[in-house]
């Protein structure tokens, strides 16, 4: 949902195989918060005229999230919906609405194209952000799809992004639950106040770095061993284990890419105390793939105050505290340009995404 900031007239919303009018909120996050029921969701990208990249992985994530939601909060399945037996079964529910949404957003793209682009739309309009929501219902599942033009600032990759450590771990990282989009509103306000591109959730008052609001975090260190691998210098990558962060689609694709590049990796959460050892860092998700981190800041110091209230009873502000409790900001500055590991990973992410496209159109 960090990718699409389109005008509402450029957006398509489909529910259970029918295009809806009057619900075309420009932001996927606004749509989820204001119009969608509680359910599992996934977000990805689709190329004009084609399906979503990592299609089978999106189906698997939806089923995995539904299962995690039922285990953690059985009440959300009180309607009696059963978890689909396999990904193919789930696809029979999801694929028709996704295909309709993609057909409709492609039609809008052509209708809004300049005359010279009537046959082939301009390059910047060829990608769409697609969000799929699967919500338990008496008859099985309700399926919602929000599709919008994908607008990615090129400088996010070439200049890097700024991230700030501002929030505690979320309650159920195993599930991509629409409630998380509602719960994180206060953290998004903090992100704006900190002039950051992303918020990193952390444990132990900011020492142990887990994940972003909509991303997974990787850090890279250079090792003394000049051994194998495809890069001229030896590197190793670290990211939080899936017991403590969302098992993101791009996260898994990055691990596969690291294997293919001969770069060792470890599922161990990066820590603030090791920040001087990092040669690069990047954040990943299935919409924007991999973006280098330019600065990582702890606005409240290390250790910092990371409390935030989640859930429907959350207040609008933080717990009051005196100014003396805040510590000085700590900043870790990295190379603004993408490092060799991030570049190698991104090449493989694009190829991986293109090899698994659906639904058939």
Explain what the structure shows:
The longest helix has 25 residues. Helix 2 crosses helix 3 and helix 7 packs across helix 8. With 361 residues, this protein is α+β, with helices and mostly antiparallel strands. It is built from eight helices and 16 strands. Strands 7, 8, 9, 10, 11, 12, 13, 14 and 15 form a nine-stranded mixed beta sheet that branches. A five-stranded antiparallel beta sheet has the order 2-1-6-5-3. A two-stranded antiparallel sheet has the order 4-16. The protein starts with 11 loop residues before the first strand and ends with a strand.
Quick structural overview:
By secondary structure, the chain is of the alpha+beta class. It has helices at 28-34, 55-72, 87-111, 155-158, 178-183, 185-193, 249-261, 340-354, and strands at residues 12-15, 18-19, 40-47, 52-53, 127-137, 140-149, 161-167, 198-203, 208-212, 216-222, 235-239, 265-267, 278-285, 289-298, 330-333, 357-358. It is built from 8 helices and 16 strands.
Helix content: 25-40%
Count of individual helical segments: 8
Radius of gyration in whole Å, from Cα? 20 Å
Number of strands: 16
**Mean pLDDT across all amino acids:** 85
Unreliable runs: 1-6, 309-326
Form type = globular
Structural class determined from secondary elements: alpha+beta
For the biggest sheet, the summary is: 9 strands, mixed
DSSP strand content: 25-35%
Distance between the termini: 24 Å
Order of helices and strands: EEHEEHHEEHEHHEEEEHEEEEHE
